[in-house]
């Protein structure tokens, strides 16, 4: 395999992996749909920095050494699965906390202003409010976005940790490089690989962040804020459960 062919092959496989739905995609979707564009771009940079770390560790044999140690590899996978599971539960928790807060506010106002005299009256008020609660959740997310925005630094760290702590990323790069990076590959080509893969990553995720954080797109996505949270939470939890099941059945 020629050097150019090797770079093209690695780049193509990596792009296909980037385009497939996973924790990285879910994170960019979640952040770009409601946070400032700078935060979404910072998250894209964070993911790319993590991919740079994975690439360097794989090229230098560190990742292979981790995978070769059964105990260490199990601990890495367990930590990564728990982290992704925590991220998934957090995505569901945002909606749950917001719904509780929004449901309690009008009920408290009704009790203060109208002073209902029976439990039935309070229950009737709750029933009437529940039909509008989901819409108010989405609207509230949009109205309060400027008051509770995530900083670019937080987005960077979140992108970095999401990819870095994903055991599937470690396995992907070890498998990819152990197959294609033979001992005959020169250090110059390895350096190009270490530049190419993070570069493709930042281009892909930056484009995704730019598209999803466009004002018109973001306004439309805000209407489906709760579904985006549920989708992202489901992706994180699915990856987490898959890793845990593999550990249990290994």
UniProtKB/TrEMBL annotation:
PANTHER family: ARGININE EXPORTER PROTEIN ARGO (PTHR30086), LYSE FAMILY TRANSLOCATOR (PTHR30086:SF17)
Originating organism: Shewanella carassii
Chief location category: membrane
Keyword list, A-Z: Cell membrane, Membrane, Transmembrane, Transmembrane helix
Protein's UniProt name: Lysine transporter LysE
Membrane protein topology class: Multi-pass membrane protein
Transmembrane segments: 6-29, 41-66, 72-94, 191-212, 224-248
Localization in the cell: Cell membrane
């Amino acid at each position: 395999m020629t050097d150019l062919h090797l770079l093209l092959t690695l780049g193509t496989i990596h792009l296909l992996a980037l385009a497939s739905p996973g924790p990285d995609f879910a994170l960019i979707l979640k952040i770009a749909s409601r946070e400032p564009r700078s935060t979404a771009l910072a998250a894209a940079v964070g993911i790319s920095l993590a991919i740079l770390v994975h690439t360097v560790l794989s090229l230098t044999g560190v990742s292979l050494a981790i995978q070769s140690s059964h105990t260490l590899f199990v601990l890495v996978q367990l930590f990564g699965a728990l982290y992704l599971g925590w991220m998934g539960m957090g995505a569901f928790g945002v909606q749950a906390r917001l719904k509780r807060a929004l449901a309690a506010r009008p009920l408290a106002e009704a009790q203060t202003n109208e002073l209902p005299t029976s439990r039935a009256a309070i229950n009737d008020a709750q029933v009437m409010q529940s039909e509008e609660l989901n819409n108010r959740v989405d609207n509230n997310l949009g109205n309060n976005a400027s008051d509770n925005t995530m900083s670019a630094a937080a987005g960077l760290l979140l992108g970095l940790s999401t990819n870095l702590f994903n055991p599937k990323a470690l396995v992907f790069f070890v498998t990819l490089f152990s197959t294609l990076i033979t001992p005959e590959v020169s250090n110059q080509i390895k350096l190009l690989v270490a530049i190419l893969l993070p570069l493709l990553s930042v281009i892909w995720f930056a484009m995704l962040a730019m598209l999803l954080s466009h004002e018109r797109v973001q306004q439309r996505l805000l209407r489906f804020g709760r579904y985006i949270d549920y989708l992202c939470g489901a992706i994180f939890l699915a990856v987490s459960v898959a890793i845990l099941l593999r550990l249990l059945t290994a």
